[in-house]
Amino acid sequence: MSLRKAFMFFIVALLMLVVAACGSDSSEEETNAATDDADNASETQEEEGEGEATSELEGSVVIDGSGTVYPLMSRLAEEYMTTEQEGVSVEVSRAGTSAGFERFLVEDGTDFNDASRPIKEEEQAKADELGIEVKELKVALDGLTFVIHPDNDWATEMTAEELESIFLADSDVTNWSDINPEWPDEKINTYGPNENHGTYEFFYEEILEEQDLKEDVNLQQEYSTLVNLISEDVNGIAFFGFGYYVNNTDQLQAVNVDFGNGPVEPSLDTIAEDGEYADYTRPVFTYLNVDHAKEKPQVLDYALYVMNNVNEFAGETGFAPIPEEEVQENIEFLEGLQ
User: Which listed site, 41, 249, 277, 332, has its alpha carbon 20 to 30 Å from 126?
Assistant: First the structure.
């Protein structure tokens, strides 16, 4: 090989080595960059995953108590599980206010007890004895409503005194004609919720002032049963919360009540503690086990959801809303538990 050819071969080989070295450096840089990007992406995903874990809750929330409050709390629970926390199961039952307090005021009892009347002194004493901190959360306003059959065209308006006399044991009223001689001479059949319910207690204690009811008042556990009984009895009359009437207007009609200034129809406009239907208006509640709220994040989260949204759902379930300042007071208390 001539010296010239050897020199040219050397130059070509050297150039190939340089190109290979540059390619190796470039690939190494690309590999390192890709590795760094993967590491950064992994760290970002881990951080995002940690954020999701802290915001998503799991577990159960157990609620029992008032059948009157049930439609409102059931609606809130449904919306909460659908739109807020799919991993939380909110179980809502309706044993009645008093029966619910029995399940609430025990060791490892329910998280909430819905109530259509305030907690009683003996119930609060039991909570104190067991060391259970209880928080009363006022959630809505309800109107005690008297309902009759749609074909009853004579008793659509009555005074409060006439209505109450129908149920009082020491009253002489047994037939419709005892109230008004122009009305049918037919026996009045009376119905209502049984003693498990706060509605019964409100009627007996607040409206009748603890005077005995007639022995033949047909008292039932289920409100749906009362709706069916009245819908089939033209001489029947029953009392229960406004929500069960407004959701069954195809089967029932409400009695307009004269409290002294003319008949008042129960409605979301008249049901208020200072409104036209005030005499038959009552607040309804849910009672929270504060210790459970401190121990179980899902319980506290649900309590906050209820108070932040209760006025939005009150009307559609047959309740009048509570004043916004009362809502905010409860929210501030609950936020203080976080």
Answer: 332
